[in-house]
Specification:
Layout lengths: L3 H9 L8 E2 H7 L5 H9 L12 E2 L12 H10 L4 E2 L2 E2 L2 H4 L5
Parallel strand pairs: 1-2
Antiparallel strand pairs: 3-4
Helix pairs in contact: 1-3, 2-3
Length: 100
């Protein structure tokens, strides 16, 4: 049986290149309100960027923590075509990927 973190990673793999989702959206897709638990799972992800936790942002598009550092998160997102300015994803509503 998969633990919560593994379930988060499985959901996250569905987020395509060039899109982002939120901690809340991942939790909702797992029928949970454990947004912080999703964040903890992302922080412990040992398979980044294969499991693309850099594609997870705050509900307002803000860049939150990343184990590799925010500069690395921004670099990965920009490589995928996601624009970032002033610590937030630009055009957030256009690149947001709804999971549920």
């Amino acid at each position: 049986m998969k633990n919560f973190s593994d379930k988060c990673y499985e959901v996250l793999k569905r987020v395509p290149v060039g899109r982002v989702t939120t901690y809340k959206e991942i939790a909702k897709s797992l029928k949970s309100k454990g947004y912080r638990a999703v964040g903890n799972a992302m922080n412990k992800n040992q398979n980044a960027p294969k499991i693309p936790c850099h594609r997870v942002v705050g509900s307002d598009g803000s860049l939150t923590g990343y184990a590799g550092g925010l500069k690395k998160k921004i670099s990965l997102l920009k490589t995928e075509g996601v624009e970032v300015a002033n610590g937030k994803v630009r055009n957030f509503s256009k690149v947001f990927y709804k999971l549920s």
